[in-house]
Design goal:
single chain; alpha+beta; 6 helices; six-stranded mixed sheet; three-stranded antiparallel sheet; 198 residues
Length: 198
Amino acid sequence: MSTPHIAALGIDVGGTGIKGAIVDIATGRLISKRRQSATPQPATPATVSTAIAELVTALDFTGPIGIAFPSAINDGAVLTAANLDKSWIGQHIGTVIDGHLPARATYLNDADAATLAEVRYGIGRDTGGLTIMVTFGTGIGTGLAHSGRLVPNAELGHIEIDGVPAEIAASAVARERNNLTWEQWAERGNRYLTTLEN
């Protein structure tokens, strides 16, 4: 007899796309097809909330919901909005979004969510010391965990290299925006990673 899935709906809000799927939280594996829609522009609290609600409806899920959000978050308040409309800053994320959903959601910085997944299911599992997670997307997201415990809101994609925030030059969107070859982009990404390591 197989063990039933313990499922949750995971939603990742990015500066260019909003993705979601139902996840088996015991294994970290997707148990539904992943759905995606473009992040509305401008990405205001109203437009993003509507897009998230439409994604939840499309996935037809009424259980627990976790939303990874591209901002530093403290006690539910949005502190930064590098890749969203600045009107998010100061908003309580649950107050803005929960009314559009069938149940209250749990909110976390997107790179922090990826870091927790890595220390629970990935290479960071059962390791001591420091784990650093780096994501390259619309921006550069970073997460830190020490011996499996999250250090929230690292936001190290904003460190400056030659006076320019790293994510302006080395994010995946920067590759597309600047028509960089993979080799050119890899050189920028490597410079960022070397600077981060140093």
